[in-house]
UniProtKB/TrEMBL annotation:
Pfam families noted in UniProt: Rubis-subs-bind, SET
Tagged with keyword Signal: yes
GO molecular function terms noted in the UniProt entry: protein-lysine N-methyltransferase activity
One BP annotation, GO: methylation
Residues of the SET domain: 92-328
Coiled-coil regions, chain positions: 487-514
Family annotation (SUPFAM superfamilies): RuBisCo LSMT C-terminal, substrate-binding domain (SSF81822), SET domain (SSF82199)
Protein name: SET domain-containing protein
InterPro entries per UniProt: Rubisco_LSMT_subst-bd, Rubisco_LSMT_subst-bd_sf, SET_dom, SET_dom_sf, SET_RBCMT, SETD3_SETD6_MTase
Keyword set, alphabetical order: Coiled coil, Methyltransferase, S-adenosyl-L-methionine, Signal, Transferase
Length: 559
């Protein structure tokens, strides 16, 4: 009885733990390994060897800022971030790298979080209590509820909160260790912070218009809230000192908000925009399934009732691998505008294409003074119909690499309707999500090609030119970060547009539409795109990009 081989004993206990649902032998070995303490600093040394802790100048400051942040999180928030394992507990799964790099372009992506050890799918990566986060609530408390009412815009009040903590409170700020890890504008480089020369590298790209409107908007918001005659700096000079609430600092605050504030959706009180220390050190991958949200903290035994922000691993990670989350299905234009980077292989990438079709009313055709352009008998009805569905005759549509925007096709099918298509029926009776007629479809596809071709013509140089610039690595490196980003971006836009044209031409051939009603497609078409329509029709509808900005909850109209 007493002579039991050690092996038998192990297998018995393994069976027992399996019965408890804890997994098999490999789990057990893994748990043992995880509890075998790594020498303190071993992981950090390895990161250093791999260049993940930055260079000497500035690198050391960044390291002490990281250490101070971790200490603050542990002390103020009881956040578990132990670097080495203690009895019964594995080390914290992540470590801060000060200098991560993009694998394809080798551009710096700033700080990021790495797996300190192997991580399993579904593992809890961190819990940050909400009380450490900066939200509208903490902003109003810090700045005065008499000044900011409960319904103040979150972006505006959080921008002031950031300026207050970093520039007014400074060393006295509760959030100082967090402020000290926040980057400078020049480390993030969203396009709205670029100078005109760098921006000119994006000539022809729709990013320029979006950038300009955002710049104007930020200036207007600053003047209205702080800098102007009735601004807070004049009304409350003690609380809002002019030399701290500068426009430069305002741009820094918005750079932080756009690139790292998170919308927490499942809070007890609904949703809120928040700056979440530590969580905002995670970089973006469009392929990550992980995202951040909040829930009520505490486990079933000790419910604290306190809310916290949590993150679970979306997949397994190997030691030293960088952990990513998804900032959402964002196009490169949006990423450049708000986050200062673009992703070379981005499945959510799209380019906004402007499609302008002038309904040829009698008066409009008269103005054109061109005998060959006929009046469209359906023009007035088309305008009415567009009005009724809230569209203008000039619209922006996102163009993707792998699919057509359905809305664009619907819009064009309507605009290309002729009396042969309607046979006297009202325009509102048709289903534009389907092909109307072969002739109609042919002119729809041709007008997309025309619009995309025209847009390609807006760029001062070709995709091949850009490719050559990028290929000459020595010269390319001499350009600034912004200029390199701009060239890569405009090249990717052109590539996507060219692919769209090729796909459409293919479709025209496949559907046997090459010969379809050429008269309608060539010159005499009623819904032909017109150069110069932009001027004629004045302001166009919001761009797709602006539309998304507005959905973010930014305060006023962009224009
Ligand atoms: C939420 S922060 C992530 C942490 C940031 N790297 C830092 O140093 O604080 C977002 C910023 O990180 C950088 N970033 C995130 N994902 C990136 C990526 N895939 N490629 C390049 N830069 C990235 C951009 O500067 C972006 O504005």
């Amino acid at each position: 009885e007493s002579f039991v081989s050690p092996d038998a004993r192990i297998s018995k206990s393994t069976t027992l733990s399996m019965a408890g649902g804890e997994g098999g032998e490999s789990e057990w070995v893994k748990a043992l390994l995880e509890n075998t303490p790594e020498a303190p600093g071993a992981f950090e040394n390895e990161m250093k060897m791999k260049g993940l802790l930055g260079n000497k100048d500035g690198g050391n400051n960044k390291l002490s800022a990281n250490a101070a942040l971790i200490q603050w999180l542990e002390e103020e928030g009881d956040v578990y971030l132990a670097e080495v394992s203690s009895w019964g507990e594995a080390p914290h799964p992540m470590a801060i790298s000060t200098d991560t790099r993009d694998e394809i372009t080798n551009e710096s992506s700033g700080r990021g979080l790495l797996a300190r050890r192997d991580i399993n799918d579904g593992d809890n990566l961190f819990k940050i209590p909400l009380k450490l986060c900066m939200t509208k609530r903490s902003a109003r408390k810090a700045l005065g509820k008499d000044i900011f009412s409960a319904d103040v815009n979150e972006y505006l009040v959080l921008a002031c909160h950031l300026i207050h903590e970093k520039f007014v409170m400074g060393d006295e700020s509760y959030w100082k260790p967090y402020m000290d890890v926040l980057p400078e504008v020049g480390e993030v480089n969203p396009t709205f912070s670029w100078n005109d020369e760098d921006l000119s590298f994006l000539d022809g790209s729709p990013v320029i218009a979006a950038t300009r409107s955002l710049q104007m908007k930020l200036q207007r918001e600053y003047d209205a809230l702080l800098g102007g005659e009735d601004g807070l700096c004049t009304k409350y000079p003690d609380r809002f000192p002019k030399d701290k609430y500068t426009y430069e600092n305002w741009l820094w605050a918005f750079t932080m908000l756009f690139s790292r504030a998170i919308r927490l959706r499942s809070l007890k009180e609904g949703e809120a925009l928040a700056l979440v220390p530590y969580a905002d050190l995670i970089n973006h991958s469009p392929f990550s399934q992980a995202y951040i949200d909040a829930r009520e903290g505490g486990d079933w035994l000790f419910t604290s009732g306190e809310e916290e922000v949590i993150l679970y691993a979306d997949r397994g990670y190997r030691r030293m691998e960088q952990i990513y989350i998804s900032y959402g299905p964002k196009s490169n234009a949006e990423l450049l505008l708000l986050y200062g980077f673009a992703v070379e292989r981005n499945p959510f990438n799209s380019v906004d294409v402007t499609v302008a079709i002038a309904p040829r009313t009698e008066s409009f055709v008269k103005e054109l003074k061109d005998e060959s352009i006929p009046i469209d008998p359906l023009a007035e009805e088309k305008i009415e119909f567009l009005d009724s569905v809230g569209r203008k005759s000039m619209v922006d549509f996102p163009c993707y690499a792998d699919r057509y925007p359905v809305e664009l096709l619907e819009f064009l099918r309507l605009m290309q309707m002729t009396p042969e298509d309607t046979r006297g029926r009202p325009l509102s009776e048709f289903d534009y999500s389907r092909t109307i007629s072969a002739a109609n479809e042919a002119s729809v596809l041709r007008s997309v090609i025309e619009a995309v071709t025209r847009q390609l013509g807006n760029y001062p140089n070709t995709e091949e030119d850009d490719a050559a610039l990028i290929k000459d690595k020595g010269m390319f490196r001499l350009l600034s970060y912004n200029q390199r980003m701009a060239i890569r971006h405009r090249r990717n836009e052109k590539r996507l547009l060219k692919r769209t044209i090729a796909a459409l031409e293919n479709q025209i051939r496949k559907q046997g539409l090459e010969d379809e009603d050429l008269a309608r497609a060539e010159g005499s078409t009623l819904g032909k795109l017109l150069p110069g329509d932009e001027r004629k029709y004045g302001m166009k509808q919001k761009t797709a990009l602006e539309d998304r900005l507005e959905k973010m909850g930014l305060p006023v109209d962009l224009r």
